[in-house]
TrEMBL record:
Keywords: Glycosidase, Hydrolase. Residues 174-354 form the Phosphodiester glycosidase domain. This is Phosphodiester glycosidase family protein. GO terms for molecular function: hydrolase activity, acting on glycosyl bonds. The lineage of its organism: Bacteria, Bacillati, Bacillota, Bacilli, Bacillales.
Length: 355
């Protein structure tokens, strides 16, 4: 019978047997085991205070440098803030100064028109409406500042050649905030065609027709500036890059100087409703729509009267558009003037304005 002590002895013998066998095999083969103690250097106890002091000194220097850097960053940030504020102030002052001549000029021309009874303002356009009543005729003036070239365009009646519609209908269809009648027209076989050279969306509707007799072309170029005059060849007009425009008679002002009004247009008719478009030196547009032909003493205006008024207003260029029953002024979906036909006349071209 194996006692517990013998069991323990047998366990250790079995557990250590492989190790003893390995040692015997290495001894027989001549291998030797060597033990080498690795020495770990330690700083002498006397150096500890010195090392600790150096470390503390470095930490103090780092802390001081951090404080200096933080202070410098704060000063730099404050200087940047002050510089930015100063530059913003300089820019604002420069912008205000740059606008001052324009504001002075606008105030000067506005004083001659009076107080607007309606104003329309957006990022694209500014429209001011005034009443015109010098005593011999009545009407309206519309001063327009185009802030974007696409704030004004010309449309064909019903958007087709030979079509005609009222300015109110055209404004409603295209979503325009305001509109006036544009060029002259000729009727043929039940259709109403624009007179002479007509440009829509940069394209000649019926080709270029050299100016003859008293006809002129007036419209806007791609930059939104008023262009007009007589053009003997297409290249001359192309150089102005017309975006749109229509034709009629006659020119009233050219570069701030009165033109000679043909005798035919001085008397036929003498007085009539009129629609005129012009511009100022700062490229603002001015539009006059004059009422007439009623039985209450207001029978319209002569071209000479309007020519003189426009010159006195400081207008640079002015062009007489189709008048009589065609004269139309529509703003915010309402007919502002009093058409001589008792209602708006359908016409083939319209100048429209957009917010």
């Amino acid at each position: 019978m194996i006692t517990p002590i013998k069991r323990i002895n047998r366990f250790f013998l079995l557990a250590t047997g492989p190790l003893i066998g390995l040692l015997i095999a290495m001894f027989v083969s001549g291998s030797a085991l060597s033990w080498q103690e690795e020495k770990v250097p330690f700083a002498p106890a006397s150096d500890i205070p010195r090392v600790t002091g150096e470390i503390g000194k470095k930490l103090d220097e780092a802390e001081s440098a951090a404080r200096l850097t933080s202070s410098s960053l704060k000063k730099t940030a404050e200087l940047y803030r002050k510089t930015t504020s100063t530059m913003s102030s300089i820019v604002n002052t420069a912008q205000t100064s740059a606008k001052r001549p324009e504001q002075i000029y606008n105030r000067r021309i506005t004083l001659k028109l009076g107080t607007p009874f309606q104003t329309i303002q957006s990022d694209k356009i500014r429209i001011e409406l005034y009443k015109v009543n010098p005593g011999t005729y009545k009407g309206y003036a519309m001063k327009v500042k185009l802030k974007s070239p696409d704030a004004m365009k010309m449309t064909l009646g019903k958007d087709i050649l030979g079509g005609a519609e009222t300015t109110l209908k055209a404004a409603q269809r295209h979503g325009a905030v305001a509109g006036i009648n544009a060029g002259g027209f000729a009727d043929s076989q039940g259709k109403r065609y624009p007179l002479s050279t007509t440009v829509v969306e940069g394209k000649y509707v019926t080709g270029f027709e050299p100016s003859y007799k008293d006809l002129f072309f007036v419209g806007l170029n791609r930059s939104g500036k008023l262009i007009g005059g007589k053009f003997r060849n297409k290249a001359d007009l192309d150089r102005l890059q017309p975006s749109f425009g229509a034709s009629f008679v006659p020119v009233l002002l050219n570069n701030g100087v009165k033109t000679t009004i043909p005798s035919k247009w001085l008397t036929s008719p003498l007085r009539a409703p009129r629609t005129i478009i012009g511009n100022y030196k700062d490229d603002q547009l001015i539009i006059l729509v004059i009422d007439g032909r009623d039985e209450n003493g207001s029978s319209g205006a002569t071209l000479t009267e309007l020519q003189n008024k426009l010159l006195n207003m400081g207008v640079q260029d002015a062009y007489n558009l189709d008048g009589g029953g065609s004269s139309s002024l529509v703003v915010n979906g309402e007919v502002i003037n009093h058409p001589s036909d008792g209602q708006l006349r359908p016409v083939p071209t319209h100048f429209l304005f957009f917010k």
